[in-house]
Amino acid sequence: MGGARAADGDRVGLLYAAAVVRSRLRTLALFLVLMPMALSFVGAGVVWKFVYAYRPAAVGQIGLLNQLVVAFGGAPRQWLVDSPWNVLFLIVAMVWTQAGFAAVLLAGAIRAVPDELTEAARLDGASPRQILRRITLPSIRPTLLVVVLAQAIGTFKAFDIVKTMTGGQFDTGVIAHEMYGQAFRYGETGRGAALAVLLFVLVTPFVAHQIRARRRTG
Prior knowledge:
Layout: H1 2-20, H2 26-34, H3 41-51, H4 64-71, H5 85-111, H6 115-123, H7 128-139, H8 141-156, H9 160-165, H10 175-185, H11 189-217
């Protein structure tokens, strides 16, 4: 689940940044996508748990998603229980909280791309997609690398949203949550420590790569 979250968060942030960077409403658009970062992960988990909330069909729905389903004639579902779709719904909540970070950094990097390059490509008949792929992405590669590494490191530490929304049940467990459960819930401090070491080992290559990248840039 974590790897998908990092990739999706970066992709959403990149596409959003590319879409609004030249817009007159750029400041407002970036403000709106950045707002979820003002919430803690626990707060975001509570918000999205209400969005996915389930009640029997005979009872009025309080969850936004099930209310929409019922309004269109469907039956309410337990979105956070049904595996593997519940993982997708957790990823949506995680991306919602993290896409703003990627969008703001990448929007700044895209703004720094010389206009002469994009104008020359446009005059040569390049489509917006080709300009993004062949000019914009290579030009913002250092910033994109920083965003990807930061999101990847954050992915391995994912805990709050999982704990708040599913408690790690229904096949939604992650390493950080399992480490917490083994050490503090079941009293298996040895297993908890082993998982902590595993988490450290998994994160170390990303941290080392980011340090090397910054040194090369410097």
